[in-house]
Amino acid sequence: MSDLSWYGVGVGLILLVGGLMGWIVPARMQAAMRSFPRHRVAAIMLTVVNVIWVTWLLIETPLGRFESWKPALYVLSPATLLAVIFFMDELLAPRMLAGFLLLLAVPILDAARWHESPWRLILTTLVYIWIVWSMLVMLSPYRFRHTVEWCEEDGRQRIVTGVFAVVGAALLVMGFFIY
């Protein structure tokens, strides 16, 4: 299996499971999505993952004339982590989820770039949609709550989660058989 296959299967599985949970137990899913923006544990976990990932990227990337600053990252990264957790705790979970999705988009797009199948454009389009949404949420984290509230109106949640489940199933099939 290629890297794009693994990413297709992973994203498809997440979308399928999330979509099915929203379809089967909509009240619990609504409660979880409503409480997520202020969920302290999720915010801290996502912050830790994001800071470690960014630190690893900075250490592995050639920085040219800033190469001499790399040893300082071992002190600056934990300090940044603590500063973000303690001083930027307002709606931190949606911001960090958006940051995680932005970080995750890079390896997926790298894997899709040179893949020979034209079906790679489906996953690429999905990734670009989540990049735009993530940038909006990163800049205005209340948009996460607005998205959740919009989905809850007039039974839209069943439609949205059904679309998530169908797209997830399609990505699983493409991940296993096409990519």
Quick structural gist:
The protein is mostly helical and 179 residues long.
Describe this structure in words.
The chain has 179 residues and is an all-alpha fold. The chain has a domain at 3-38 and 91-177. Helix content is 80%, strand content 0%. α1 crosses α2 and α1 packs antiparallel against α8. The model has no long low-confidence stretch (mean pLDDT 92).
Radius of gyration: 18 Å
Our count of helices gives: 8
Q: In percent terms, what proportion of residues is strand? A: under 5%
| Helix-residue proportion | over 70%
Query: H/E order of the elements?
Result: HHHHHHHH
Tell me, rounded to a whole number, the average pLDDT: 92
Q: State the shape.
A: flat
> How many E-type strands?
0
Distance between the termini: 8 Å
Largest sheet: none
Unreliable stretches (pLDDT < 50, length at least 5) are none
Structural class based on helices, strands and sheet pairing? mainly alpha
Labels describing this entry:
8 helices, 179 residues, mainly alpha, flat
Topology record:
Elements (H helix, E strand, L loop, with lengths): L2 H22 L1 H10 L4 H21 L12 H15 L4 H22 L6 H20 L2 H11 L3 H22 L2
